[in-house]
Amino acid sequence: MTKVYVPTDAAARSVGADEVAERITAIAGVEVVRTGSRGMLWLEPMVEVETPEGRVGYGPVAPEDVDGLVAAGMLRGEVRDIGACLGLVEELPWMKRQQRLTFARVGVVDPLSAGDYTAHGGIAGLRRALSLTPAEVVETVVDSGLRGRGGAGFPTGIKWRTVLGAQSDLKFVCCNADEGDSGTFADRMLIEGDPFTLIEGMTIAAYAVGATEGYVYLRSEYPDAVATLKEAIEIARVEGWLGADVLGSGFTFDLHVRVGAGAYICGEETSMLESLEGKRGTVRAKPPIPALEGLFGRPTVVNNVLSLATVPTILAHGAEAYAAYGVGRSLGTSVFQLGGNVARGGIVETAFGITLGELVNDFGGGTSSGRPVRAAQVGGPLGAYLPVEQFDLPMDYEAFAAAGAMVGHGGIVVFDETVDMASMARFAFEFCAAESCGKCTPCRVGAVRGVETIDRIVAGDDRQKNLVLLDDLCELMTDGSLCAMGGLTPMPVRSAVRHFGEDFTT
């Protein structure tokens, strides 16, 4: 029987993947397997046919194309003159240049097949973790150099070490899946395409620090991810990967999904914890840090989806194997997301050190409009706008920090020459004003004053004086805000003024 793989990822479904799968399923002698997306979003829906040489891809495939492609030999994996034929998927330049560790199974396996998961290396990391002491697991993660993918890039193992050393009868592991940054979709794609790897990573984290309960805080805008993760958790319980006796080890850990209501501020870890406790999502003052007093006042590991989902491969293959990738203190791989005005948008997982230009121009193919690239915003709506003159900047936490920018969650939004950077700077303040929790004055009031100040600058009202005032306001927000919402809002504003000053004075 011929196996055909069709994505069930939300992006693919939005352009007709379900209808394509239905048409192929109706053909005798064909088994259709629904997978996650390979991440080449401009080719969705992409159909893959299993052959002795490997999977042959076809895309984009519209429902009305199926009959013609089948007649032309698609189900035999033939590579003759079929316009949609891409060739062997693993040999495509987009795939071949990547180093997929966290996303190794996404687009390859049935997301809800426990058998598929274990056949492709799943649970090996958890089995090895359970053969070690909790402290040894923590030190393995420390030695790997894994850093948080949520923004600040804090070393994951150091956070775990703190929670392990905290004295409490109850500890938690919380996954922050409130993926609200512009141009980011890796969390959603991983949960929809390989949810067991997140479950495995959280279980390893729980064993390492002595936690017995875990929560995934997942945004309500991701209904497919919510449904997939809930079903995967039920399957994991049946398989013995969660519950009172994980893999017969005597270790107890269970996991629950909590759906957020769409507040951007709940991407900040303490706001997320407040929301998990049933309160309004507002920022907590630190100290105490969540590692010591987190959910319900107990020691809590709070990590991003990609951080936790990377842990299984580190435990399975060792810290040294993971740390062999990357540069400097930015070790391992990162999942970069290309969006905005880009010809080839999607997911790229590669070692730290690749340049911004390689991602935008080589992988992304420049702009979708065909106009020259003018800027890219990296790290979400609070990230810096970088001009093409800085596209030789390596994707490296320290290199970006030195340039007044941040890697953040790895989202890259591309803009062509028609972009008005004064408007983009204004949007940063508008966004902050709308999404601020309102707890601290620099963020709550500063964002509103920022919009007013940029409006005066653009209108030509005492421009130089207001540019000085804008800089003072940015400094105040950076230094005085309670969390990164207000503290980082000045980053896109200052970068826009610094690199694209002409947009503020013409």
Automatic annotation (TrEMBL):
Lineage: superkingdom: Bacteria
A GO molecular-function annotation: 4 iron, 4 sulfur cluster binding
Signal sequence region: none
Cross-referenced InterPro entries: NADH-UbQ_OxRdtase_51kDa_CS (IPR001949), Nuo51_FMN-bd (IPR011538), Nuo51_FMN-bd_sf (IPR037225), Nuop51_4Fe4S-bd (IPR019575), Nuop51_4Fe4S-bd_sf (IPR037207), Thioredoxin-like_sf (IPR036249)
Keywords tagged on the record: 4Fe-4S, Iron, Iron-sulfur, Metal-binding
A Pfam entry, by short name: Complex1_51K
Domain NADH-ubiquinone oxidoreductase 51kDa subunit iron-sulphur binding: 422-467
Family: Belongs to the complex I 51 kDa subunit family.
Name by which UniProt lists this protein: Formate dehydrogenase beta subunit
